[in-house]
Write a structure and sequence with these properties.
Elements lengths: L1 E6 L6 H10 L4 H12 L4 E10 L2 E10 L2 E2 L13 E2 L4 E3 L18 E3 L2 E3 H10 L4 H22 L7 E3 H21 L3 E4 L2 E2 L1 E2 L1 E4 L2 E4 L3 H6 L5 E2 L5 E2 L3 H10 L2 E2 L5 E10 L9 E9 L5 H4 L6 E10 L4 H13 L4 E8 L5 E9 L4 H11 L6 E7 L3 E9 L2 E10 L2 E6 L1 H10 L6 H6 L3
Parallel strand pairs: 1-10, 10-17, 11-15
Antiparallel strand pairs: 1-19, 2-3, 3-4, 5-9, 6-7, 8-9, 12-16, 13-14, 18-19, 20-22, 20-23, 21-22, 24-25, 25-26
């Protein structure tokens, strides 16, 4: 299956995604020509600039509005997430929509500028001389952005007004990604869990935590994580593009690549600041019917800690509490800790959405001062139950199918119940034989 896999280990911004997709597209010259033709009436120009990060060569897509490029220190076009209601002149910070830009101008600097509402933006997209599906995708992505902003500001998408210059810059990123994906024509787009960065970002409304509120809103249902890099790595535009196109966020599957693209950000970090795009065919050893079982696969969160100062009774209680709270599984492993102390590795598997709940339970019911998180992509067989009547009563049979596998097993609790009802005068094996 023709697949694009996006590796977002340093987050993503609209320009970084567009640059990575540009590198794996075989119609580069036509793409640049068409983008500049479409945006010429708005004094927007697009160019592909060679860029190197940590010794790796890639592309930085430069978008200028009236000859001014969004800069890494935030002193140029404003982010589309900078929104207002109906005002036309404001004091505001100019936040660039890049994973590298999170600074604000002096809050005392006032100036007049124009804004555009969502309806006008849709009309602008509809007027572009582009394929219908490209315009439809661009409009849908901007709707995701608008709805996220509206929820954050407690208003409606119809009342959201975007700063005109920032909108043009972000619109070029969004339309560019939509056009490139249309040209590449993948059958599916996959991505890694998203690195959002850490710390705080300064914007027009003050100092906000990373991920920024609009980005966090867009990330509902998407696996993401913070890390050691301080700053905003994932922008609202990047999050909206990924949310719209990506069908699954998980570690890279088996893929035979035909092209690899590096979309570079503007700022330098200790790590290569880029989005990496892999184009190729995902490898499958299953028939189409067997591949349907992938719908059962999901992602689980592992929360763990090491303890060396809890009694067995206290650890047993914590395990029972975690299971009662809805944990998928809880287990312990003996470990050797610092100062040659024997200890216990306590691990809880849960749904990613339950991270906050189980973190609180770890701190409340164990002696740990810190926990570790790890997301796992999980492959599962689909399970169904059927009830079989026996001389001992009804016994449930668990059937598991998928990946070309079929297996079944009697439910242990039902077998145990039969043994106990017969005053332990028969074995589990005796009960199991009655099912054959």
């Amino acid at each position: 299956m023709k697949t694009i896999y996006l590796e977002c280990n340093m987050g993503a911004a609209g320009d970084m995604l567009m640059s990575a997709l540009y590198e794996i597209c075989d119609q580069k010259e036509w793409f640049l020509y068409k983008m500049n033709e479409v945006f010429a009436p708005y004094h927007v120009t697009l160019s592909a600039t060679p860029s190197t990060k940590c010794g790796i060569a890639g592309t930085h897509m430069t978008v200028t509005v009236d000859g001014v490029e969004e800069s890494a220190d935030g002193s140029a076009p404003a982010s589309p997430s900078h929104t207002h209601h109906s005002e036309t002149a404001h004091t505001h910070a100019q936040d660039g929509d890049s994973a590298d830009t999170a600074q604000a101008d002096n809050a005392d600097t006032s100036h007049a500028h124009t804004h555009t509402d969502y309806a006008s933006l849709c009309e602008k997209i509809a007027s572009f001389d582009l394929p219908a599906e490209v315009k439809e995708d661009a409009g849908a992505i901007y709707r995701l952005l608008g709805e996220a902003e509206a929820k954050v500001h407690g208003t409606t998408i119809e009342q959201i007004h975007f700063h005109e210059v920032g909108t043009l810059d972000a619109l070029a990123d969004i339309v560019g990604c939509a056009l490139l994906i249309g040209l590449i024509a993948p059958e599916q787009i996959l991505a890694s869990p998203l690195h959002v960065g850490s710390g705080f970002v300064r914007c027009a409304h003050g100092v906000l935590p990373v991920p920024a509120p609009a980005t966090a809103e867009l990330l509902q249902g998407v696996p993401f994580y913070s890390g050691s890099v301080t700053g905003e790595l994932l922008t609202p535009t990047g999050a909206a593009i990924l949310k719209y196109y990506v069908t699954r966020f998980f570690p890279m599957p088996a893929i035979t690549t035909t092209a690899i693209g590096y979309g570079m950000g503007a700022k330098d970090f200790e790590f290569a600041n880029c989005v990496r795009a892999f184009l190729g065919d995902t490898v499958s050893y299953l028939t189409p019917e067997e591949e349907e079982s992938f719908s059962c696969d999901d992602t689980v969160l592992s929360i763990s800690c090491n303890v060396d100062d809890m009694t067995g009774e206290a650890l047993g209680l914590a395990t029972e509490i975690f299971m009662a709270a809805g944990a998928l599984d809880v287990y312990t492993i003996p470990v050797q800790m610092k100062k040659n102390r024997p200890g216990i590795l306590l691990t809880c598997l849960c749904e990613p959405d339950d991270r906050e709940k189980f973190t609180g339970l770890f701190f409340l019911h164990t002696s740990t001062r810190g926990v570790r998180y790890q997301l796992y992509e999980r492959a599962k067989l689909e399970s169904t139950f059927e009830t079989k009547k026996t001389s001992y009563g009804n016994i449930r049979i668990k059937k598991s199918t998928g990946y070309g596998i079929e297996k079944e097993k009697p439910e242990f609790e039902d077998l145990k119940s039969v043994v106990l009802k017969n005053h332990c005068a028969m074995s589990l094996e005796d009960v199991t034989k009655s099912l054959r």
